[in-house]
Write a structure and sequence with these properties.
InterPro entries: Ntox30. This is Type IV secretion protein Rhs. It is built from five helices and six strands. The protein is of the alpha+beta class and 174 residues long. The protein has a domain at 57-174. Strands 1, 2, 3, 4, 5 and 6 form a six-stranded antiparallel beta sheet that branches. Strand 4 and strand 5 form a beta hairpin. The termini are far apart. The model has no long low-confidence stretch (mean pLDDT 84).
Length: 174
């Protein structure tokens, strides 16, 4: 009964930081996941909507949450930005940057400032016995693995590569 009602012999062994946390019944939320949940609740979602929003978040929602984490809510969208965090079973990396003069003509990166949201599932993929790698979000809600986003890849998809460079919104961060 490693995490049953009795909690096992080492209840600190099942938390993210065993030096600071003990959760004998496995009921506590990890801080990063709980912070995102609280952020969603502050936007007027009920408890079940807030939890579901984490699992189904769009790149724009993840970008806005990462800006909130740095205390930028209520300000203009920044042109240069980087934030890393973990939530649920994913590591996230969010970046924003100005126009890239070396980007393909007509691409989102060549036309103006963009942001990108990357995520990597934690753990080992049992079919490959390796990590899952990084994937990047597009406005449609799809996630594209880096294996199709690099021009040197035999599976390169230029449309997906462009879609994952999302034009930076104008206005104020919610």
């Amino acid at each position: 009964d490693p995490i049953g009602l009795l909690g096992g012999r080492r209840p600190q062994g099942y938390v993210h930081n065993p030096l600071e946390w003990v959760d004998p019944l496995g009921l506590a939320a990890c801080p990063d996941l709980y912070d995102w949940y609280k952020y969603n609740r502050s936007k007027g979602m009920n408890a079940s909507e807030a939890h579901a929003a984490i699992k189904n978040a769009s790149p724009q929602e993840i970008f806005d949450y990462s800006l909130h984490r740095q205390g930028l809510s209520g300000q203009d969208y920044p042109i240069n930005f980087k934030e890393k965090f973990s939530a649920g079973n994913y590591k996230y990396e969010v970046r924003a940057h100005d126009i890239n003069p070396n980007a393909p003509l007509g691409s989102n990166s060549a036309n103006g400032p963009i942001f990108r949201v990357g995520r990597s599932q934690m753990g080992v993929n049992p079919s490959t016995n390796q990590g899952y790698g990084w994937e990047y979000g597009s406005p449609s809600g799809g996630w594209h693995h880096t294996s199709i986003l690099k021009p040197t890849s035999p599976n390169y998809n230029p449309a997906a590569a462009n879609d994952t460079h999302i034009p930076l919104p104008n206005g104020i961060i919610p």
